[in-house]
Amino acid sequence: SAVISQKPSRDICQRGTSLTIQCQVDSQVTMMFWYRQQPGQSLTLIATANQGSEATYESGFVIDKFPISRPNLTFSTLTVSNMSPEDSSIYLCSVVLGTEAFFGQGTRLTVV
Amino acid sequence: GDSVTQMEGPVTLSEEAFLTINCTYTATGYPSLFWYVQYPGEGLQLLLKATKADDKGSNKGFEATYRKETTSFHLEKGSVQVSDSAVYFCALKSSAGSYQLTFGKGTKLSVIP
Q1: Predicted confidence band at B98 (pLDDT cuts at 50, 70, 90)?
Q2: Cross-chain residue pair A105–B103, CB shorter than 8 Å
Q3: Of A42, A96, A106, which is closest to B106 when you measure between CB atoms?
Q4: Spatial separation of the C-alpha atoms in residues A101 and B106, rounded to whole Å
Q5: Would you say residue A92 has pLDDT above 70?
Q6: Confidence class of residue A78 from pLDDT cuts 50, 70 and 90?
Q7: Using CA atoms in the order B18, B82, B87, A110, what is the torsion angle rounded to 10 degrees?
Q8: Nearest to B43 among A42, A100, A103 (CB)
Q9: A85 by DSSP, 3-state: which?
Q10: What sign does the dihedral A55-B35-B31-A4 (CA atoms) show?
């Protein structure tokens, strides 16, 4: 199994600012995934982050808005840039070990 | 593309009641199917999974059977407990590509004593 520590667990931010979310895993993993869970909606994949290469973004998500770093096999960050109230969501990181996906506890972001 | 349709919530049940949360999917090929649970303040945890048609996943008294003919993976439990109160997500992984999951919207279950 994998233990994922995600920080911060929640934050309230002013519009126009940026927030960086950190994800630390207790195992070395090739792929890390970032999801967004908007209020009352399902989880939507934002991007896949592989160590040593650029993140791969899903349709509707761009690097300028959601830059991702993946400096090593146990850590990744997601930045939500130039925030607006529409960015208020829960953001989750996820890793795969074997055939099972594990998730962090999520970051609940509120933009005011 | 792939999609998962899940029973709308919230669902409120009395303790020891029978639970069914419906889940149907649209996908090409033979996806793997999952149920995840999210307890208050925690991350998603895998509850059970099934990787091929007619497989039954089970864990903690919960069961779900992979029905390809009806493209369904309904979650059931014979007798729910207060501790089962959580949000339940149905998800699928495509038979091709990397390990990306497509999720349903989630169903919030509240069990009252």
Answers
A1: low
A2: no
A3: A42
A4: 17
A5: yes
A6: very high
A7: 150
A8: A103
A9: helix
A10: positive
